[in-house]
Each structure stands twice: as C-alpha cells, then as structure tokens.
Amino acid sequence: MSGTSSSGPAPDALELAALLCSRVCHDLISPVGAIVNGLEVLDDNPKPEDRDFALDLIRKSAKTASARLQFCRLAFGAAGSSGAQIDLGDAQAMAKGHVEDGKVTLTWNLPRLLLPKNRVKLLLNMLLIAQQTIPRGGTLTIDPVGEGDTMSFRITAAGLNSRVPQNIVDMLGSTAAAADAHSVQPYYTRLLAQACGLTVKLAPEGDTVVVSAS
After folding, report:
1. Angle, helices 117-132/88-99, rounded to nearest 10 degrees
2. Rounded to an integer, what distance in angstroms lies between the CA atom of residue 163 and that of residue 143?
3. Is the confidence at residue 179, as pLDDT, over 80?
4. Up-side HSE of residue 198: CA atoms within 13 Å toward CB?
5. Is 173 exposed, middle or buried (0-12, 13-18, 19+ CB in 10 A)?
6. Residue 177's pLDDT is what?
7. β strands within 99-151, DSSP E
8. How many CB atoms lie within 10 A of CB 44?
9. In 10 A of CB 20, how many CB atoms?
10. Which residue has the higher pLDDT, 138 or 80?
C-alpha cells in the first residue's frame, strides 16, 4: 500500500462495503486477467509449446484466484452467523494458500481450536499487514498470546529490507485518518481489533517487524 491517509470523516457502512469490495477486486484482477490472456493464446491455435505455456498459465492463475477468493471470504466476508466460531485449522489452510507464493514462507505456531469469528478475521488481516512489511519476501511467524477464546496474536516478519509503512501505522492508531481504497484494509483491521477489545500495533524489533494485538 502506498500513499498517506488524510484526515476526514470515517466511511459509513455503505462506503466501507464499497471500499472492501474494491480491495477484493484488486486482489483478483491479476490472476483473472492472466487466465483471460491464456485463453486468448489458445484461441489463436498456438504451436504446441505455446499451448503448453498457456495451459500452465491458466492452471496456476486459476489456483491463485481460488486461493485469494477463499482467503478474502474469510478475512473480509461474513463467514457464518454473528456469533459463529471458526476453526484455526481452516484459517491456516487459507492463509498458506494466499501467502505462500514462492517468496514468503508461513510458520504457524497456533493450536487448532475454535475461536470467535472476528478474532480469526483479525488474525488474517494482521497477516496481510505483516506481509506488506517484507516486499522482497521472507518468513512470517505467527505465535499465540494468551489462550482460549481471549487468545490474541503476534506476527513476526523477517525478510531482506523489511520496512514499517508509516501510512499503515497511522491507520492502525489514528481515529482521525480517513480510509480510501488504498488504506481500507488496515482501517478494517483496526475496526476488527476494536470489536475484539484489542489494539493492533506495528513496530520494528531488531531486524524484524512485529504486528501484535493486545
């Protein structure tokens, strides 16, 4: 995410829904566009080697699109009724499918148990923030803080040239920052944390960057 967030009124429910939809569409444009490109190659009666390339592109892009859709459904969507609980094992599978792209490795040190829906959504959104601190790839390690229904999380991002995006820090900590299409994800993370009675912090720690909820 780039750019800085300006002060202004918080988005209402309709605007927040629109901004989150824009975020999901942004995540899907690239793999879906690649599928379309691959199909166009096939329509042109390509040589065998071009056909194999197109099929491989379609296969990989469809897998990426599916993984992103499943992740976004859990991270941003309803994912069950108001008081629903979500299995951390399911969250782990979706997180790995979304995050592990050949550049990033996920180390998941959480136990397998059911947690309230908003707490799991908070975890996945914290993971998205942590991923942005290692643009050149690296390792994301998720550890529990506490236990049971009140468990929170600590995510350590380690990678070459890790960084702390100031606009995300501002959005996580300032109620005066106005959300836009670029900053809606950390803004939504803050809302989830508030719903759980927590605060999310993003800060450097030695050679790593830590995203924590407490």
Report:
1. 20
2. 20
3. no
4. 24
5. middle
6. 60
7. 104-108, 114-116, 138-145
8. 10
9. 21
10. 138
**CA 59, CA 14: separation in Å to the nearest integer?**
35
Q: Which two tokens stand for residue 150?
A: 């009140």
Report CA torsion sign: 134, 135, 138, 140.
Answer: positive
70 C-beta neighbours (distance < 10 Å), count: 16
Instruction: Name the residue with tokens 């296969």.
Output: 59
pLDDT score, position 82:
60
What's residue 27's pLDDT? 87
- As beta bridge partners, residue 177 has 7
Query: 158 CB contacts (<8 Å, ≥6 apart)?
Result: 134, 138, 139, 141, 207, 208
CA dihedral 160, 127, 100, 111 (to 10 degrees): 120
**pLDDT above 80 for 60:** yes
Residue type, 119: R
User: Three-state DSSP class for 84?
Assistant: coil
Instruction: Pull the structure tokens for residue 185.
Output: 């994800």
* pLDDT tens track for 29-49: 999 999 999 999 999 878 888
CA 205, 119, 172, 17 torsion-angle sign: positive
Tokens in use for 131?
């991923």
d(CA 165, CA 203): 10
Direct distance between the N- and C-terminal alpha carbons of the chain, in angstroms, rounded to an integer:
24
Closest CA relative to residue 213, chosen from 82, 122, 148: 122
